[in-house]
Amino acid sequence: MFPLKTAEMLKMRPLVAIIGAFFTAICLWMPVLHAHMYDDSVYGHIIPEKTKTANGVTVEHVLLYPQEGHESSKRIARQAMLARSNDTQATVLVCHGFMCDKYDVGMIRRIFRTKNFNVMTFDFRAHGQDGEGQYCTFGRDEALDVIAAAKFLRNHPELCDKPLFVYGFSMGAVSAIEAQALESELFDAMILDCPFDSSERVIKTGLDCLKCSLFGFEFEMPGKELLQKYAFHPYVQALVKAVLKTVAQMDATGVKTNFCPIHPAESAKKITVPVFLIHCKNDQKVSVDQVRKVYEALAGYTLWWLTNGRRHYDSFFYNPEKYIEQVRQFFNQVLNGELEGMLQKEIIEDGDEDDHLFSA
């Protein structure tokens, strides 16, 4: 072959630049392309070059492909991390709350001993990595994210023969309820911390803080009922979000959101697997009455633990030793078959004397 002349090389530079830009774009858009290329039976894939193993634990980075919407066949891509070990007893899917991501809930892995449990954390839509163009629906469409993650784990060659549990808090707990109601064999047991009973109640609780005072007297803010009535209307949502952020510390402006009607207390009627409910008596965002509606609706064995936590999702932080003990005990009872066929419901409530009782 003859070497190219300088003039010919200069002519080829634009072509080389175009080819380079094309392949760069392909690499950047690969997660999105994967989401559209895979068929309905594929719920995710492992990124092999990111897999690492240390101290007997293998960490896999995963791309999940949930449906974009309940009536849509289009897929979106979500990021996940799976920590697994040999000879574990079960797998736990962790579902984070609003404005969290898979890294924020990494501490939850400490609840589940690596020698006993594999644990997956993932980003709900509009949260964490690669959430551009996505919207949070507070559990309605997030149920599709849960289904994709659970079915990926059910089909994982190293995990497919193990029981699958779910741990979710707040929006994550609601998403798990909605997912299990849609797919009754998704999970073998569920731990749900502070789930709300309906999206309408969440909005009402936030708007109840909307008051004004005059000459020492406190009044209901005019127009509050209208805001609540039309909260799901697209033209009203921006105002509702601003009000909730200001008066109820419920900041729905940091993540793209779409308030949708959702009723976990109704969906809970379809759930028959064992459930461990956890809730703080002092939760100002989700009342005890809301969780009671979920508790009463669940159709299988249900244990409800009322704690002295100080605020929303505070049971773990208020008394982590007891929290870990209770969670592990519940999952161990499921694994040992102690709850099979049990339809009873039970409520345990912490008293003041239980605040600082730590397990050994």
Describe the protein.
- The chain has 360 residues and is an alpha/beta fold.
- The protein has 3 domains: 1-37; 42-198 and 262-354, Rossmann fold (3-Layer(aba) Sandwich); 201-248, no CATH class.
- 34% of the residues lie in helices and 19% in strands.
- The chain is built from 11 helices and 13 strands.
- It has helices spanning 6-28, 30-37, 142-155, 171-182, 199-207, 224-229, 234-248, 264-267, 288-297, 315-318, 320-335; strands at residues 44-46, 52-54, 57-64, 78-85, 90-95, 117-122, 164-169, 189-193, 211-214, 217-220, 275-280, 302-307, 345-349.
- Strands 1, 2, 3, 4, 5, 6, 7, 8, 11, 12 and 13 form an 11-stranded mixed β-sheet that branches.
- The chain starts with 5 loop residues before the first helix and ends in an 11-residue tail after the last strand.
- What's the number of extended β-strand segments? 13
CATH fold naming of the largest domain: Rossmann fold
Helix content bin: 25-40%
Order of helices and strands: HHEEEEEEHEHEHEEHHHEHEHHE
Question: Strand pairing plus helix content: what structural class?
Answer: alpha/beta
**CATH class designation of the largest domain:** Alpha Beta
* Average pLDDT, all residues: 84
How is the main sheet built?
A: 11 strands, mixed
Portion in beta strands: 15-25%
The named CATH superfamily of the largest domain: Alpha/Beta hydrolase fold, catalytic domain
**Silhouette:** globular
Low-pLDDT runs of 5+ residues are: 25-29, 32-38
